[in-house]
Amino acid sequence: MNWVVGLTGGIGSGKTAASDYLETLGVSIIDADKVARSVVAPGSFALAQIAEHFGEQSINQDGHLNRRYLRSVIFDQPEEKDWLEALLHPMIRSQILMDLQAPSSSPYVVLVSPLLLETDQWTLADKIVIIDVPEALQLARSASRDQASIESIQKIMSQQLSRVDRLNRADFIIDNSQTLTELHQQLANLHSTLQEQTLSKTVQQLSRDTRETD
């Protein structure tokens, strides 16, 4: 399997801005959010199961998942959140694993996921990168971007790993509290470091393989 770098951070931290820039450097990106959307695409088994369990109001008129309705249900009913996760997380993980195993010309592959550390997705990563911002900035950016209430954003944050716990799990920390230019510079430095580590691992593996065939 490709060498995998897991990239995550709290809501409003700038995960997409970070992964978009790494993609311009030639890095292959696997976006867990996109995988999650594909799993519940119109006509999918998962979407049919959700409609049966939560009712037809969980499906929009265009046939897509009514995310706003479903979000309101699971926030208020933890047992429903557990049911939904039990259905979707294995499917999402299976598809991510298939994508990670696909051939790539990139020196490493980035798995960007908001739930990297909250699920077992972290076990798929060789290194973990945290995009970090203060919680007050998370709230401000998310409210501006999503036109959501502070209360609803705080609910989302309460269900994510705390900032302290995230940072304790990091191999690399990217501070995204400043300008986009500064974010890109940190990511360029990180890319160089990861390329070096990938090359070192490849050399070690080749050396090990050579010894085993002697």
TrEMBL record:
<keyword id="KW-0808">Transferase</keyword>
<keyword id="KW-0067">ATP-binding</keyword>
<keyword id="KW-0963">Cytoplasm</keyword>
<dbReference type="Pfam" id="PF01121">
    <property type="entry name" value="CoaE"/>
</dbReference>
<dbReference type="InterPro" id="IPR001977">
    <property type="entry name" value="Depp_CoAkinase"/>
</dbReference>
<keyword id="KW-0418">Kinase</keyword>
<keyword id="KW-0173">Coenzyme A biosynthesis</keyword>
<comment type="pathway">
    <text>Cofactor biosynthesis; coenzyme A biosynthesis; CoA from (R)-pantothenate: step 5/5.</text>
</comment>
<dbReference type="GO" id="GO:0004140">
    <property type="term" value="F:dephospho-CoA kinase activity"/>
</dbReference>
<dbReference type="GO" id="GO:0015937">
    <property type="term" value="P:coenzyme A biosynthetic process"/>
</dbReference>
<dbReference type="GO" id="GO:0005524">
    <property type="term" value="F:ATP binding"/>
</dbReference>
<keyword id="KW-0547">Nucleotide-binding</keyword>
<dbReference type="GO" id="GO:0005737">
    <property type="term" value="C:cytoplasm"/>
</dbReference>
<feature type="binding site">
    <location>
        <begin position="12"/>
        <end position="17"/>
    </location>
    <ligand>
        <name>ATP</name>
    </ligand>
</feature>
<comment type="similarity">
    <text>Belongs to the CoaE family.</text>
</comment>
<protein>
    <recommendedName>
        <fullName>Dephospho-CoA kinase</fullName>
        <ecNumber>2.7.1.24</ecNumber>
    </recommendedName>
</protein>
<dbReference type="InterPro" id="IPR027417">
    <property type="entry name" value="P-loop_NTPase"/>
</dbReference>
<comment type="function">
    <text>Catalyzes the phosphorylation of the 3'-hydroxyl group of dephosphocoenzyme A to form coenzyme A.</text>
</comment>
